[in-house]
Amino acid sequence: MKPLSFATAALTAALLASPAWTQTETAASFTSENAILDTGIAFAIGAREAQQNLRGSFGWSTFQEGLVEGVYFRFDPDGYARFSPSPRLDTDVFEVICRPRTYTCMARKDALSIIPLPNGKVQLKLEDVRPGDGLYLSDSKSELQLPDRILQPLELQFETLLSAGGELIVRRGEKEILKTSLSGFGAVVPYLRWISARQDYTVLPRTWPVPNAQGSADGSITNAVGWASPMPQPQAIQQVGPGAQYVNSVQADPGEQVTVDLQELRTLLAERSNAGEPSNPPAAAPVAEDRTAKLERTVAELMAEIRLLRTAGRADDVPAPQSAAAPSPLWTDPVAQVAPMQPQAVADPAPDLTARPMAAQALPTEVDHLDYLVNKMGLAPKTAMILLQIVGTGTEQGPQSDAMERSYHDSLAVTILNELERDLARADASDLATASGDLTDTKKQMDPGQLDPLQSSATVESDGPLLADLVDVDSAVDGVSTDTGVTNENPMSKPARLDLSQSEYQPLTAYFKSVIQADP
Amino acid sequence: MQSGGLMKSNRGTSKTSWRFGAAVFLTVGIVLAGAAWSVSSTARDVFLFREAEEIPIIAGGNLDKIPALMRGNRPAATSSLIEGVAARQKPPRMCEMPEDYFETLDLTPGRDPGYDKRNAYVRKFRDRRGFLTAREMAAARVAWKYFELYTQEDTGLANAVGNFPSTTLWDTASYIAGMVSAYELCIIEKPEFDRRIMKLLTTVKGLDLFRKEMPNKVYHTKTGAKVDYTNKPGEIGFSALDIGRYLVWMRILKNRYPYLGNTIDSTLLKWNYSNIMDSEGVMFGAFVHKETGETVYAQEGRLGYEEYAAKGFALWGFQPRLAHRAEPFLTASIFGVQVPYDGRDPRVFHSQNYVVTESYLQDGLELGWDLPHDDSSPEWLHTDGWRAEFADRIYQVQENRWRQTGFMTARSEHNVKGPPYFTYDTIFSDGYPWNTVTPRGDYVPDHAAVSAKAAIGLWAMWDTEYTDTLFDAIIELYDPERGMFEGLYERGQGRVEIFTANNNGIILTSLLHKVQGTILTAFKGETEVWFTAFRDQDIRQKRNMPDPPTKKDWLPALRHSVQVEAEF
């Protein structure tokens, strides 16, 4: 967190030192270059662009005003905005100020500042708060103590929590030294992201009332998840905002989407390997960073898909007795796992892969369940996932068809990982060695391309430690062990349980980041 | 027989008598009616007899419906011309005044405060008059520093705000106000004054108009190019209020310095007034429709500013009858004072009905709260009575606030440093007293301030203990190299560290008023090019240029006693 903290401090210092922040500029701020927002693009449904009569010789002739998430807002083309539960925007105001000619903005209310970070998260800053001070979230009836890490880059669950409103209280001992209303927090944070994303609706939370520029035929206020936004659609799931990682997660065919993403990842890696020489000048750094960020997003999406798919196979898995001598496998072929327990499945000599999608369609899958929970019932994606896991763990071992269905999803995940590994191996063996230690040695022992996806799972599971971490993290996420008792052929692999809240996506992200950014 | 004869005779007589009586009655009635008619007709002819009088129509007189070609030669009807009284004289420059100048002036009101029969008004307050003290003179010199520093040599235009090179006609009028004041207060001499004013006027004449109609709302001061609010080449529209204030100062210039008349007239003759005022006397501003790009004309002005700008137009012969009226207006009871505010609902008209000091102040300083045709009434009598009476209320409510809450109060619109950059620091607006709002309507109480221009203006026009306090708070609030600061934050954040043409111009005007009284003086000429030009063409009709006003064109003197109260 130190680099991020440093970056946050630098950003804060830059904002505080900026002319607008210190109010050292006035009229010069009204130059067209300082207009970073088009007030004609509605921030939320119902917002309107208005013209204002100016008495002076300068100023912004237009602004936008509206109501969203229970707060009224107005913002100018330079990003300056006010959010308040009062239509006069006079009390309990979140004020957003941007550095001239940049998309670097921050919000503040009393002693609370909200600073967006480059990775899409935000960081809170509270004045006069010292280590050891107690942080509490109060809803006027009860209080919830908050960990100190809410002052670090804000995790999604905390962001969701703070967006619910209430008051943030800081106590030093018994003395209350700070009390700030969080009213408007849930609107200000998306606004900051919306600015950073150049008014791209895709960074807004899933439940955000995004206006349809084409007009809604049915007159509905909000749009279903399948609604085609007039704005450019996201190319990857982004780790910003509550539920944002599930944006556009409902696809016609999850497998197809994963394949597309793999193709994109392959392309990126190929570009990286073809780049060859480490002579990229510093000017190319932003390009690399963009690529890295894109890759991270892709990986995050992959992770979501993998976890989604694996949920089906894992929910009914019964952990097999594990041999003390044999380390638990990191990635096991569900078919291989199920086979010993399901003779009928073994007796089936050649499962027809092409028929499996049909089977998946015939019976409700976890994806269908998820789709139902999210789209029909309106649950938050994370809540839906948790619900599915709870239901899944409480369900008895399904019939053979369920097992086959789950095996299909798991095999798809194995296929994905296989492809991923092949691409990585082709991309740059030395990079991989640098990034993942002995991974290249392991790669030499096998040729995944010659293996049947289903049969290769046992080999795949023995891949390098980073990937092992990945898989195990995925298991940890779901709260179900993938240990099946199948002999792990890779002595290097070991199970590890990571803390979900802090590293949900980190291992794979770090891995690819290291691959991309490693000096050849 | 006798008895029978009598009876016959009696019967015969009775028959004859009835008929006879009816005939006599009818005859007498007709005769009497005829006699009455005859007598009354005769009496009417006798009593109403007047000798046939032929009123000769004098060429060029009021009864002479002279053709348009010749109307320009007619002198504008002013109170001094119609009533045959002496017009006000232009006071000498301060440095040319004899030492006993003010001892010879009779400024004592000739009657009790209140309205007179003609709806002129005598205030219960007195304005300050006299020579400037050393402190006041120092402030005047500093205020002029702003214009020395921020006037662009190439165009002669002065920046509206600090070193940001843009301005409006409103702010240009403030520059002219500063220039006139500096000259009359002997801060600059005539060569400097002439150099500056000629440069400015020739630049204004050459300005590229908004769609060949009226001056654009904003111009770049370095290039004179029309720009948008971000100071980039473009056009916004025009403001009737800005142009109205500019016309006030053009009239002041022309009346004070007749040698500038032709230059001023040629500037104004270039403009097209066909859309800025309709036949009912409503003023319209213009803006560009964002989507279609077409010009949109919209009523402009709210109570206070609207009437002030309307009088600017009236000084040039226009007839802004509706714009000059206070209606529709309401009052809000604040600290026991019925504060008038515009009755047009901001939610409907999307224009704030802010009540500030500035517009009433400028009317008093520059026009003496007099009607545009009045060039002869004594200074203590304000012929545009309701304007003076409303101004007194605007002052009184601010003093009352100071006395009851301790907040020094002199509210006006002013710039602030940083967002939101500009605030209407109002006495009342949008339904709230002491409302400090941005142009887009945000409530920003932290930007409430004692406006320097309002404070010095109140000090000049209301000689009271309270304005002495305001004066002490503001008169040294300056940067000696850059001018007077915009104001003093009400909540203790210190000075409003920004410098503007409007603030410094109004402060200079206030100080000049102390020396010379009402800034507008009487016109001394006979005819004006403004009225005689283009008489042989149809340009005047196409551009809606007025004829010299006659007495029937005068704006009415009104008073307003009926109010709808709202308690706050």
TL;DR of this structure?
The complex is a heterodimer of chains A (520) and B (568). Chain A has helices at 2-17, 19-22, 156-163, 185-196, 254-275, 285-315, 334-341, 343-347, 356-362, 366-376, 381-393, 400-427, 429-436, 439-444, 457-460, 465-478, 500-503, 506-517; strands spanning 48-51, 62-68, 71-75, 81-84, 94-98, 105-109, 112-116, 122-126, 134-138, 143-146, 167-172, 175-181.
Describe this structure in words.
The complex is a heterodimer of chains A (520) and B (568). Chain A has 520 residues and is α+β, with helices and mostly antiparallel strands. Chain A folds into two domains: 2-190, no CATH class; 262-275 and 284-318 and 329-344 and 387-517, no CATH class. Chain A has helices spanning 2-17, 19-22, 156-163, 185-196, 254-275, 285-315, 334-341, 343-347, 356-362, 366-376, 381-393, 400-427, 429-436, 439-444, 457-460, 465-478, 500-503, 506-517, and strands at 48-51, 62-68, 71-75, 81-84, 94-98, 105-109, 112-116, 122-126, 134-138, 143-146, 167-172, 175-181. The model of chain A is unreliable at 1-25, 213-254, 276-287, 312-363, 393-405 and 428-520 (pLDDT under 50). Chain B has 568 residues and is an alpha+beta fold. Chain B has 18 helices and 24 strands. In chain B, the strands form nine sheets. Chain B has a three-stranded antiparallel beta sheet with strand order 1-2-13, covered by helices on one side. In chain B, a hairpin with a 3-residue loop joins strand 20 (478-479) and strand 21 (483-484). Chain B starts with a helix and ends with a strand. Residues 1-9 of chain B have low confidence and may be disordered. Chain A binds chain B through residues 20, 22-32, 34-35, 40, 50-63, 65, 74, 76, 80, 82, 88-90, 95, 97, and chain B through 160-162, 164, 166-168, 170-171, 217-218, 228-232, 236, 241, 287, 290, 300, 350-352, 413, 415-422, 424, 432, 439-443, 445, 498.
